[in-house]
Design brief:
With 197 residues, the chain is an alpha/beta fold. It has a single domain, classed as 3-Layer(aba) Sandwich (Rossmann fold). Helices cover 38% and strands 20% of the residues. It has 5 helices and 7 strands; from the N terminus they run βαβαβαβαβαββ. A 7-stranded mixed beta sheet has the order 4-3-2-1-5-6-7, with helices on both faces. Helix 1 packs across helix 2, helix 2 packs parallel to helix 3 and helix 4 runs parallel beside helix 5. The radius of gyration is 16 Å and the shape is globular. The two termini are 30 Å apart.
C-alpha cells in the first residue's frame, strides 16, 4: 500500500481535479479572463480551507491547468502563512509524467511543453511529500488508479468543471467522490460560480 508521511487521522485532506489547458483555451492562454477567474477562485478556496482547518494537507496530481495552479497556490499561501500547518502532497500516476527527464529532455512522443514540465519540477521540489501510484498497464489505467488513490484519502475535493463536463476522467472522479461521500466544491468557469454539492 502506497502511503505518505503527511497523511494522518487528525489531518483534513483536500484534493484538486479539473480542466487542463486544452479545456481552457490552450497552454498559451493562461492570462485569459476565465483562467484568471479560475486561479483567483482556487486561491480564495485554498486560503479559506487553510484558515478553518488547523492541520491540512492538499493533494495535487500536478497535471497542467487546474492541478498545477492549485499546487502553486498552496505553495504560495504556505509561504505567507507559516503559522498554519499546510502541507502539499503530490500524487503522480507514473514516473516522467511530463514526458521529459529531469533535465527537460523529451523522453515521450508527445511531451508537455517545457514550461509545464519546469512548473511541475518546481512544485515537486516545494512539496512536503510525493508518491507515485504507478498501477495499471496503460496511461489511462495508471491515471485512474492515481485518481482513486487520491479520492480515497480526500475529505474534500475542489473540482474545476462546468455543468457540461465531457472529460471522461473528470466524470469518473466526480462519480467516485459522490460514492465515497467526499465533500465536493465546484468551481464553474462557465458561470463563474462556486458551490458545494
Amino acid at each position: 500500500m502506497i502511503e505518505s508521511k503527511v497523511l494522518g487521522e487528525s489531518v483534513k485532506t483536500f484534493s484538486f481535479f479539473g480542466y487542463e489547458p486544452n479545456d481552457l483555451g490552450g497552454f498559451d492562454n493562461e492570462t485569459s479572463l476565465v483562467n484568471q477567474w479560475v486561479k483567483f477562485s482556487l486561491k480564495v478556496m485554498i486560503s479559506h480551507l487553510s484558515k478553518i482547518h488547523q492541520d491540512i494537507t492538499f493533494i495535487s496530481g500536478c497535471s497542467p491547468g487546474t492541478e498545477t495552479w492549485a499546487a502553486e497556490e498552496v505553495v504560495n499561501i504556505r509561504a505567507h502563512h507559516e503559522e498554519r500547518n499546510i502541507k502539499l502532497l503530490v500524487a503522480l500516476p507514473f514516473q516522467n509524467m511530463s514526458g521529459r527527464d529531469s533535465e527537460g529532455t523529451p523522453v515521450a512522443p508527445r511531451p508537455w511543453p517545457l514550461k509545464s514540465h519546469e512548473r511541475m519540477k518546481t512544485i515537486l521540489e516545494s512539496a512536503d511529500d510525493s508518491v507515485t501510484v504507478d498501477e495499471g498497464s496503460t496511461l489511462t489505467l495508471k491515471t485512474s488508479s492515481r485518481d482513486t488513490w487520491v479520492l480515497e484519502r480526500s475529505y474534500g475535493t475542489l473540482f474545476v468543471v462546468d455543468d457540461d463536463v465531457k472529460n471522461a476522467r473528470l466524470i469518473e472522479a466526480l462519480d467516485a467522490a459522490e460514492k465515497n461521500h467526499t465533500q465536493c466544491c465546484i468551481i464553474n468557469p462557465s458561470t463563474e460560480q462556486i458551490y458545494v454539492l
